[in-house]
Design brief:
With 407 residues, this protein is an alpha/beta fold. It has a domain of 275 residues: Malonyl-Coenzyme A Acyl Carrier Protein, domain 2 (3-Layer(aba) Sandwich), CATH 3.40.366. The protein contains 17 helices and ten strands.
Length: 407
């Protein structure tokens, strides 16, 4: 992982088929006809296993190559479907680049989402991984929410992919427009602090971003900073700012001089200010587009919203929150705490390119030392066997020692 100085910031670049014999036999469960699942599933039996998906920034040229080499039949089918839906060869950009093309928002976002679903389909078709009986809840970080909704049965892959592609195009247009208007460059910067300083850091950031009033004694010395928002609260020691990079740098100076904080700043692999008011046209596009999308609700598995940090409650709730996600803060930390502390999730499986999602989950839940717990990530074919065997070893058992049937 390389890094390059950038003013007071640091730019950090992102980052066979074979059956498993007896383990797979134990992994499989009798088929059943599912009930129409809603959040009542949560209150009825609690949750144990969460499936989570990464967001923008994990893309890299060649991220599907190992899957193509190991599982050509399934991988080729998914990538061909992706290209047909989009109307151009995104698969070629994913495999051959260049980075400058893949990193364009309108390419990177559908690419990450499609490769995440590709890995999920390989688990289902090549390893008989039955998500409906093996997983209790899904969630995705930012862009990853679309993959989570596909996995949970709320959206069809084709519909989700078209939404992501067009939404990304609108987001890119928003960025170009605001950059042309203001003359500033835009993007996102992660602030990393000591865990026990996060609350006070958030308060200080909000104080500097809040509009000042004539009654505010400090307003003349330290004017408020516009065009910067808190886009993500990712973990107990990390938040992400979104907006004008120059103004984020100004905010960092004020935090250090007047706020009593000196967080480490990491420029993220994004040239767009996601989850900020700049993206209002993208939110409006989503509100309109969702009216023409077939949303299944109730679906197969509960899914956690980035905006509410709670399960989607209805079809209308899903449409509203998925649209608002373009401009609202991603409450990832709250989502993980809700599942871990309140509902008792102990097994976390990340699916998709990169390890960022696993790292963010691991920060909150640690090693999950409770018997039957763990955090795993499947971003490479070599990780499949280890993860499936680990899940089998940690499968909760009934009183007679047999695995439970999830209903």
């Amino acid at each position: 992982m390389g890094s390059h100085a950038l003013g007071s910031l640091v730019y950090m670049s992102p980052f066979k088929s074979r059956r498993l014999g007896a383990a797979i036999a134990m992994w499989r469960r009798p088929s059943f006809t599912p009930a129409r699942l809603t959040t009542s599933r949560i209150s009825h039996r609690g949750l144990y296993t969460a499936l989570f998906f990464p967001g923008h920034g994990v893309q890299r040229v060649g991220m599907a190559t190992a899957w193509m080499d190991s599982f050509p039949r399934t991988a080729t089918r998914i990538l061909d479907e992706m290209d047909t839906i989009l109307g151009f060869k995104l698969s070629r950009i994913i495999s051959d680049g260049p980075n400058s093309e893949l990193n364009r928002t309108e390419h990177s976002q559908p690419a990450v989402m499609a490769v995440s679903v590709l890995i999920l389909r390989i688990l289902e078709h090549e390893f008989e991984f039955d998500i409906q009986s093996r997983v209790d809840v899904t969630l995705g970080h930012s862009l990853g929410e679309f993959s989570a909704l596909v996995a949970g049965g709320y959206l069809e892959f084709g519909d989700a992919l078209q939404l992501v592609r067009r939404r990304a195009e609108v987001m890119a247009q928003c960025t170009r427009a605001v950059a042309k208007q203001s003359g500033d460059s835009y993007g996102m910067v992660a602030l990393i602090c000591e865990p026990d300083h996060l609350e006070s850091l958030l308060k200080a950031v909000q104080d500097f971003l809040s509009p000042r009033t004539p009654e505010d004694d400090s307003s003349h010395a330290v004017p408020s900073i516009q065009q910067v928002v808190v886009a993500n609260i990712n973990s107990k020691n990390q938040i992400v700012l979104s907006g004008s990079i120059e103004r984020i740098k100004t905010l960092l100076v004020q935090l250090r001089q007047f706020g009593g904080h000196d967080p480490r700043a990491v420029r993220l692999k994004s040239d767009s200010p996601f989850h900020s008011p700049v993206m209002a046209p993208a939110a409006e596009y989503m509100r309109n587009a969702m009216e023409n999308i077939d949303v299944r609700f109730p679906a197969l598995i509960p899914c956690i919203s980035n905006v509410s940090a709670q399960p989607f409650q209805s079809k209308e709730d899903l449409k509203d929150l998925l649209s608002r996600q373009c401009i609202d803060t991603v409450r990832w930390w709250d989502s993980i705490r809700y599942l871990h502390q309140d509902l008792g999730v102990r097994r976390w499986v990340g699916i998709g390119p990169g390890k960022i999602g696993r790292n963010l989950v691991g920060k909150e839940v640690g090693r999950v030392d409770t018997k039957g717990g763990g955090v795993w990530a499947i971003s490479d074919p070599r990780e499949v066997e280890e993860t499936i065997l680990a899940l089998e070893r940690t499968e909760p058992r009934t009183l007679d020692g047999s695995p439970p049937i999830h209903v």
